[in-house]
Structure formats: C-alpha cells, structure tokens
Design brief:
424 residues; alpha/beta; binds pyridoxal-5'-phosphate
Length: 424
C-alpha cells in the first residue's frame, strides 16, 4: 500500500526520517550546482560514484605497482580469479546461483556472445521475437547477428508493438505473439524493463510461453538489474545480459554481466565463441591446443578480466548488497510513487506519464510525455540543477534511485518543475 502523499517539504522530510536507507546517500558523490548537490534523477543512465570506489582503485594501483605481474596471484583480490569475487553478490541481485553469473565485457558484446550460443536457427525454427522500439544497440546486435548467419533480418525478427494509440505493451499481446510464432520461434530476446517507457515485462510468463513452443528466452536487463526484483533461475530464464553502470553504480563503461541457467552453463558442448579465460581453469596456463570449457557461466569469458573495472564493480556492489534488493525495492516503490504524485499534482494534463501506474509494472523510472515545449522544460530543469534525460520526440525520463535519492530530492524536482512549466 502506498501512503497518502502530499507535495510538501514537511512530508518529504518526514519520509526521509523514516527511511531505513537514508544514510546510504552519504556514501555517494553528487555533482554540484551552485555549491549544492544536484537533484540527480539519472541513475537509470549512469549511477553516481560510490565513495568506496576511489579506495578500491587505489588498492589495485598499489597492488600493480608493488607486485607487477605477480598481482594475478597475489593482489588483494587476485586478478586471475576476480570474477569469482563478484558471483555471489551478482547472484543475489539477479536471483541466480553464483556459478550461473559472471561479470565480463560490455553489454552489447555480451548480447552477441549470448546470441552465438542461444540462437541456433534451423530451416524451420529461426525466428527471434523482441519488443518494437528496443534500445538501438539491441536492434543493431540482432540485425547484424542474423545477417552474419546468412539470414535476412526481415524474415527473422518479429517485433511486438504497442496497440494503436498506446505506448506500452499488453502482457497478453507478447504471449500471443510467441504462440503465433510457435514452431518457427527459436528465441525470445526481450528487455526486462523497457528503456524508453520504463515498463517492466513479465519475464516469468514470457519465458514459460517461449518454452511451451520449444523456444529459448533471453533478456536484456540493462534497466532491470538493481532496479526490480529478479528471480532468473526460478523463472527458468535461459540467459540474460546487463550493464553495471546504471542502478549498480559501477562507472561509465563499467564491466557488464551475464546469467546463463545452469542447465546450459554446465553443458560444455554448447556452441560458443571462446577465449582462454573461459577454458578449464586447471589448463588455462598450460597453453595447450583445443578449448575445454570451464563449468558454469564463467566459461563464456574470453579475455583476462580488467582489474580496475572489476574493482570498481566490487566496491559498488558491496554498498548495494549492504542495502539489499528487498529494502531497495520497498523504498523504490514509495519514492517513485511520490514522484508520480508530485508530477500529477503540479503538471496536471500538461504531462502524461507513459510508464505504467501499477507498481509491479514499473521500476524507479518514470517517462513523462510533455504535451508542449518539452525541450524547454528539460532545459529549464537542467539549468536549475535537476539532472534528468531527454528522449526524442518529447519525453523526459526521471528515475529516483532508492540507494541515494531522497524524498526531498523528489520535492525539489517538483519545485523546479513548477518553474519550468511556468516559464515554457
Ligand atoms: C537496453 C540497453 N541495451 C544496450 C545498451 C548498450 O550498452 P553498452 O554500451 O554497454 O553495450 C544500453 C545502454 O544504455 C541499454 O540501455
């Protein structure tokens, strides 16, 4: 149950006082605007820097300076096993067993690696189903990957689009599209949370429907990881990939992650693109010919891990883990509920929130369709120290991150919005 909201500073401060996570805010570095913390609402794009990251990086630099190549085995976190230090916390965040996850590469790279394994077209079963208006990198990955297999993207890719005049998808339309593709469907490759609208998709039902027609289900969790509760193993999701620079606060271009269900991850014969870091650990340094897959998701690693990015990720995940997904989600529902209330209270019909209203269908982000002068509203907010983002043709996205945003931030957002609407 959401509380009865009031768009007043007193109400916001009262909520902050009752917030069990209020102190986490002080563990992050906020950009400044006129000597004051900005109202940072773009954790859905790039999370803020945890203060602990600098210490973690200094430790790696010092280990490198003192140990040189020996750091692979003797650094504080030995570099050759760095991914192991991240498996437990990542498993908790995505609802997976530790050996089903691995931190590696960047998101789009990992999408290609997952496609290499989980898209195995046959003359009958070759279609891929995704959401219309997916993030461009996902579109490009699918399109080029399909071409690489000698197939034509327009024969292969089925896009599920919103109904006429609507902006979000009906859950039943996704399931119907999966059933209609039936025996021709090889793979569902869907977002967990849609980047533009903030809609959360029912990953469990999508996976179930895909399996019923004999297809596999993979998800891009860029906007879902660290934002909404995930139970990938229990939902029997086949594979997923995400980035760590949004709600996981692991820095621009930070190390990404993948999940591979153990029924696949333990299958050493699956087709894949391999490198020495995914080889059986016992023989990794034996320099022998012939790839022998390690057990678990770690077998999909190609290269030795970038220690500086791994250190950043580890430090950021420690902060995240301390707060824990259940408490973060509980606060997120309240905080985003407050943001929705403030927007409606202040903007009335000038702003249409296109993100679904039901808490289970949204995460932290709200996408606001501005009926007129949207760009001027955005420019005003930015000039007044409220950091949001702009998406053509007329959408402002704002995402209060429960780990470091306060209810007072949302109130300050509302005050700036008043000024923006009055002047544009
Ligand atoms: C949904 C989605 N997919 C893919 C990407 C691209 O990620 P990367 O540049 O890390 O490959 C992003 C980046 O924000 C994203 O939001």
């Amino acid at each position: 149950m959401l509380p009865v909201y009031h768009s007043t500073l007193d109400f916001a401060r009262q909520q902050d006082e009752e917030d069990p996570l209020q102190d986490f805010r002080h563990r992050f570095l906020f950009p400044q605007h006129h000597d004051r913390d900005v109202v940072y609402m773009t954790g859905n794009s790039l999370g803020l820097q945890p203060k602990a990251v600098r210490t973690a990086l200094e430790q790696e630099l010092s280990d490198w300076a003192m140990l040189g190549v020996e750091g692979h085995f003797h650094a504080t976190t030995p570099w050759w096993k760095y991914h192991e230090a991240l498996q437990e916390p990542l498993g908790r965040i995505v609802g997976a067993k530790p050996h089903e996850v691995v931190a590696m590469n960047a998101l789009t790279v990992n999408l290609h690696l997952l496609l290499a394994t989980f898209y195995q077209p046959t003359p009958q079963r070759y279609k891929i189903l995704c959401e219309a208006g997916a993030f461009p990198s996902d579109d490009y990955a699918l399109e080029t990957h399909v071409r690489l297999r000698g197939l034509n993207p327009s024969d292969v890719i089925i896009e599920v689009a919103p109904r006429e005049g609507e902006t979000t998808l009906h859950a039943e339309d996704i399931i119907t599209a999966i059933r209609e593709a039936g025996q021709n469907l090889a793979l569902v490759m869907f977002a967990g949370v849609q980047y533009y609208t903030g809609q959360v998709f029912d990953m469990q039902s999508i996976t179930y429907a895909a399996h019923q027609v004999g297809a596999l289900a993979c998800f891009d969790l860029a906007h879902a990881v660290g934002n909404v509760p995930l139970e990938l193993h229990e939902w029997k999701v086949d594979a997923a990939a995400w980035c760590s620079y949004k709600y996981l606060n692991s820095g621009p271009g930070g190390i990404a992650g993948v999940y591979i269900h153990e029924k696949h991850a333990m299958n050493k014969d699956l087709p894949r693109l391999a490198g020495w870091w995914g080889n059986d650990e016992q023989e990794r340094f034996a320099m022998k010919k012939g790839y022998r897959a390690a057990a678990g998701a770690q077998a999909w690693q190609l290269s030795n891990a970038p220690a500086l990015l791994m250190a950043t990720h580890k430090a950021a995940l420690e902060v995240f883990d301390e707060a824990g997904m259940p408490r973060l989600r509980a606060k997120s529902e309240l905080l985003t509920g407050f943001l929705a209330f403030v927007i409606r209270d202040i903007a009335g019909s000038r702003i249409r929130i296109i993100t679904p209203t039901a808490p289970e269908e949204r995460g932290a982000q709200l996408s606001m369709f501005i009926e007129k002068n949207g760009r001027a509203v955005f420019d005003y907010l930015m000039a007044h120290g409220v950091i949001v983002d702009w998406r053509e043709p007329n959408v402002i996205r704002a995402a209060p991150a429960p780990l470091y945003n306060s209810f007072e931030d949302v109130w300050r957002f509302g005050e700036a919005l008043k000024g923006a609407l009055a002047s544009s």
